[in-house]
Structure prediction request, 113 residues.
Amino acid sequence: MLRAKLAELEAGVRRLDGIAVETAPDAMDESAFANGRDFEVERLVQMASMLVSTRAALDRIADGSYGACLDCGQTISPKRLAVLPWAGYCRPCQENLDLLRDTGTSPLRLPEI
Prediction:
């Protein structure tokens, strides 16, 4: 499943045609073009992040550490891995990371992915 997701993401990242810079004499059209570009850029950032996570999961499979939380070392729930096979963190640790990101606080340590 991870290899299929990796192929899908790599193909998607290569398609950058939605980020073309277009200009229009009409301010409304210009605004619509800018909004479309912003959406495509955000989508590309999300895809690139998931690509990194997927590659990291494949690396963890290769080195035998797949399924262990990168923060606390506890086993990641098989249900979580079934839904998010690229997950690197158990649910509680992921929630802590999300909370820290939402509040703009830097965590004390983040493992290299």
